[in-house]
What we know:
By secondary structure, this protein is α/β, with parallel strands linked by helices. It is about 35% helix and about 20% strand. The chain has one domain: Rossmann fold (3-Layer(aba) Sandwich).
Amino acid sequence: MDFRFDFAVDENENSEADGDFLLLYSPNHKQESREKSRETAGPAADCSPKLAAAEHRDEAASKKNLCVKAAKEHSIPEDLNKVLENKVMETVLDLSHVKLSVVEMTCSGDTDSEGIVSKSVSSHSDLIPGVYEGGLKIWECTFDLMDYFSEAGVEFTNKTVLDLGCGAGLLGIVALQGDAARVHFQDYNSTVIDEITLPNVVANCTGEGRRVGRGEDTKASQPPSKRPRKAQGSPDVLSRCRFFSGEWSQVSQLLLNSSQPCSKYDVILTSETIYNPDYYSALHDTLAQLLERNGRVYLASKVHYFGVGGGIYLFEKFIEEKNVFRTSVVKTIDQGLQRCIMEIAFKNSS
Ligand SMILES: C[S@@+](CC[C@H](N)C(=O)[O-])C[C@H]1O[C@@H](n2cnc3c(N)ncnc32)[C@H](O)[C@@H]1O
């Protein structure tokens, strides 16, 4: 599997016009948000994490004029076969997922109103800050976190779970298979939710090779299917799921003000979401607003994201300065780029 980590600056003048964006702060947003993107995308000056003061970053981010992608809830089509129409699936660790190269060839127009597939392909980039945040691919820390669930015996039974920055949604799917009471999936990009996350949930929880509960038999890993798959039954699993796209602060407002309000989450899973320090404030506040008082966040990340500047120590420092959560690095992975699993809980929690 290809894990490119390239970054690009959006050069599309109309980028806010083709997505659902909210403009915050100033009329000069376009120029300034481009400057922000350039700063973010520039090569890292050094490899050591810079421990800039969290408050200073907050202020700097709010002074910049941010284009914030509005949040929306995605409905689940009644005809589940439509969700898998034209999709080619592959299997990894017994989980089905949409084959990205086929999405890259077939997704355009209505199926990619954000234009992120073509932008990502044409710029050879896995991240275009503020436009495409990487959810089309499966990032390696997802697998680290899945390993950690097995090693540490993390339980999902009857838990309410949020897969934050879900991309392919494999973490949320594992929680569903572990009998979570509810699993909500969030990604920045609506194309990712419609073309990747939702099909993956349908393929794993309603189709062949599905595992919807711990008590059920599991099929052996299947070779990648070359044919589009048909979803079969079990929409009840989907009744435990909701899907959201948009920027974190917008999504948390949507969730908190929803006409179908939901209780806070017992578990928030998030993998490879702390690469960009400009987003730390929104991420921190979202965790603070949505986590149950005694809940846990499991965060998987590279130690440092070369080229964007974020990383585990910078985020740890940010959290420390906010004084809301306690953190503990529960696992370090040393193969290749160093990576970590961090557990986060409220300071006054049990
Ligand atoms: C690098 S991808 C990781 C995807 C997936 N978790 C994985 O490990 O394969 C980062 C994810 O974080 C989400 N994300 C990043 N910044 C965000 C922001 N400011 N608001 C909302 N979502 C954001 C994107 O939706 C994207 O899917």
